TrEMBL record:
Keywords: Membrane, Transmembrane, Transmembrane helix
Subcellular location: Membrane
Transmembrane segments: 12-28, 34-57, 64-87, 145-166, 197-216, 228-254, 261-281, 301-326
Family: Belongs to the autoinducer-2 exporter (AI-2E) (TC 2.A.86) family.
Organism ancestry: Bacteria, Pseudomonadati, Pseudomonadota, Alphaproteobacteria, Rhodobacterales
Topology versus the membrane: Multi-pass membrane protein
Gene Ontology BP, a term: transmembrane transport
Name of the protein in question: Predicted PurR-regulated permease PerM
Amino acid sequence: MRPSDSQLAERLQTGFLGVIAFGLILALLVQARFILICLVFAIIIFSLTSDAISAFARLKVPNWLATTLALIAIAVGLLWAATAVVAQVNEVVSISIAYADRAQAALARLSQRWGPQAQEAIATFMGNIDFAGWLRSAAAQASNLISGSVLILTFVGFMFSERIWFPIKIERLTKDPAQARQMLETMRRIMRRVNRYLVVKAAISAVTAALIWLIFRFWGLELAGAVAMLTFILNFIPTLGSIIATVITVAMVLAQTGDPAPTLAIGTMTTAVHFIIGNIFDPMLLGQTLRLSSFGIVLSLAFWGAVWGIAGTFLAVPIMVAVMIVCAQIPWLRPVAIMLSQEGVPEAEPRQPRLRG
């Protein structure tokens, strides 16, 4: 066999093994998605609270006391958030089912202005949609938040117990103190970038949710708190989250009022809120934090949404940030980091020595 043929066969074999490995990893991501999603959320919560514990340590607070207080706060916060979301979803489901007939009647009156063909098409479309089934399915999925919160809390507790020994394990694993420091610094950079993104995004989402709540209260509509909470949560999904939140808000208004005029007015106000915050304040505050390609974010949303569902769309950006930073430190993966970055410069901070690939 000629050398060129042997090289081609070796490349084909390597590519074939790569495809098999990718398929196995993808199957693992799908089959174990509940545990993996909880693990990723636990890592994010651990990262956020680690900074808080470090801040307490600088105030001469004992590490065991700061860790205990952090675990108590995490447990209370997770369980409260899970029960609050479940309660709001159940309230939306019960009220939406009660208003479903009114919304369909309003759409029927509205479609009369567009002619009989449009009216027939809308009636056929609405008849094929099982709103009650979708709402009950959403309520059933929301109930999984309680069990997920318990699993996340368990993961976080074990992470805190291993927190002191983790740098030592990395050093013994690599058998090279310099490379261990590089790996730990890369992890810290990922944590800093993701933490800043989550804190800024939470503040932006809170302002957006508060404005939507004020609009609902001003018009005297029900479900102001539920719609505001839904807006806050969906705002963590880049681009698509604001669109989905606006559509749901308009549907809720139409279901409650049954009148196209206030629905159009409130829909215009909520769209303006999402547009101004999403296109002015969001890029201004997050531009230097993310440094991610817009097309890459869309691909990440599509991939993780297909693999992990709704939870994957929330985790798409943090995972993409981590992948970009890791790839920027490994020479043979640096082209991937350049393609994922916004301007072809994945490092937002001073460059560190790269890891050996």
